[in-house]
């Protein structure tokens, strides 16, 4: 039996890597999914692709054996949120919400007896930093770390399963709240790659060392000339870091 057939040279996979399908069409998204094959099992779908392809595309991904991070940052009246979560199909691993305790409660009501999707709250966009926070809140004394800590505490109290967090905030959240929640880290950038519009980007190794449970990678893979090569490098780095953390 050849090495390829017995698995000795088969590509590594990482069950904690999420690739962001920030494309304008189903065809482009599925081409990357096919290219990456068994390397990646979770894909993030946000506004850009969802508005064009809708829930039918989510179901298509699930039908291909993939899990989905549905990143729509849902915020609305309780009845609407509960109805939306009831409509989320099996195979969606995460959803993001934007709201307080009542919104979280409505999302959990809509999820019902299922243990998925995990309900995540967004702490602060990775494209924003300390200066942006102070401008948004009109408070020159407000520190980003403190804002994120308070927000995370309230998210846990509201019943969220986890948060989406960036930069050094990940380390502070893990240090204060331990394993009480799942941390998903967006804006991951391999060493030497452009940060694009992510002001608080981290390398895969740094994010995992800080305490991230899942990594979201978009443009470094989706816009690369060698998407496979970049994905493989990220997977190797992530697997080594997760092994060092005994995860």
**Proportion of strand residues:** 15-25%
| Termini separation | 32 Å
Write down the overall mean pLDDT: 84
Number of helices: 11
Summing up helix and strand content along with how strands pair, one would put the structural category as alpha/beta
Low-confidence segments: 1-8, 124-130, 194-200
Q: The CATH topology, please?
A: TIM Barrel
How would you describe the shape?
globular
The top-level CATH class is Alpha Beta
Q: Quickly count the domains.
A: 1
Helix proportion: 40-55%
The largest sheet is: 8 strands, parallel, barrel
CATH architectural group: Alpha-Beta Barrel
CATH homologous superfamily name? Aldolase class I
Q: Enumerate the strands of the largest sheet in spatial order, edge to edge or round the barrel.
A: 1-2-3-4-5-6-7-8
Number of strands: 8
Indicate the multimeric state.
Answer: single chain
List the helices and strands in order: HEHEHEHEHEHHEHEHEHH
User: What is the rounded Rg?
Assistant: 18 Å
């Amino acid at each position: 039996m050849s090495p390829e057939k017995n698995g000795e040279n088969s590509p590594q996979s990482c069950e904690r890597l999420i690739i962001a399908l920030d494309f304008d069409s189903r065809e482009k998204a599925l081409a990357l999914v096919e290219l990456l094959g068994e390397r990646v099992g979770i894909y993030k779908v946000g506004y850009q692709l969802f508005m064009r392809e809708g829930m039918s595309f989510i179901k298509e991904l699930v039908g291909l054996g993939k899990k989905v991070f549905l990143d729509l940052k849902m915020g609305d009246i309780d009845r609407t949120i509960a109805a939306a979560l009831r409509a989320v199909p099996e195979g969606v691993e995460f959803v993001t919400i934007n709201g307080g305790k009542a919104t979280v409660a409505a999302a959990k009501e809509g999820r019902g007896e299922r243990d998925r999707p995990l309900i995540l709250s967004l702490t602060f966009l990775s494209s924003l930093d300390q200066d942006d926070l102070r401008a948004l809140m009109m408070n020159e004394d407000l520190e980003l770390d403190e804002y994120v800590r308070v927000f995370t505490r309230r998210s846990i109290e509201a019943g969220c399963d986890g948060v989406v967090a960036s930069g050094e905030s990940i380390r502070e959240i893990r240090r204060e709240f331990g394993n009480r929640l799942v941390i998903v880290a967006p804006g991951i950038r391999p060493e030497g790659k452009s940060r694009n519009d992510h002001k608080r980007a981290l390398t895969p190794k740094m994010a995992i060392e800080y305490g991230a449970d899942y990594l979201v990678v978009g443009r470094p893979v989706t816009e690369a000339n060698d998407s496979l090569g970049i994905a493989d490098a990220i997977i190797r780095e992530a697997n080594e870091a997760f092994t060092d953390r005994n995860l």
